[in-house]
Write a structure and sequence with these properties.
The chain is mostly beta strands. The chain has a single domain (2-101), classed as Gyrase A, domain 2. It has 2 helices and 8 strands, in the order ββαββββαββ. The strands form 2 sheets. It has a 4-stranded mixed sheet. Strand 3 (27-33) and strand 4 form a beta hairpin. The two termini are 29 Å apart.
């Protein structure tokens, strides 16, 4: 799972096997360690649960979880839909949330693109 933070936006890109695990297990997560002590860790997760909102976020110290509704997650996982998108009002402006399938890069080797989704632009004429 790839995490991208830019300004007031948060994006997760997930591989094919991660999408399968998300649907089967209800969540996936990863962490980044900034130093050798436990408090210097940021865990980021993607989970699904029954909800009226397609996408939301939960922040706790050292942990960010993007929540998808179970219906939205299942529909997205079994379709050609690229991602699930939304905005959350934080009281300090909108926070843009994006969860997308990780597509193969057109300029990388087969090994580097392992476990990605087929790029819809592959084989196209530039």
């Amino acid at each position: 799972m790839k995490l991208r933070i830019k300004g007031n936006s948060l994006r997760l890109r997930v591989s094919r096997s991660e999408v399968v695990r998300l649907i089967q297990d209800g969540h996936i997560e990863d962490a980044i360690h900034f130093a050798s002590h436990e408090e210097a860790t940021l865990t980021y997760a993607l989970a699904h649960a029954p909800s009226d909102r397609d996408i939301s976020v939960e922040y706790r110290p050292q942990r960010i979880t993007i929540w998808l509704s179970t219906n939205a997650a299942k529909q997205w996982s079994g379709s050609e839909q690229t991602g699930i998108y939304g905005e959350i009002d934080t009281g300090f402006g909108p926070l843009t949330l994006v969860v997308e399938k990780d597509f193969a890069c057109l300029d990388r080797s087969k090994a580097e693109n392992e476990d990605t989704f087929p790029n819809p632009k592959a084989g196209g004429t530039c």
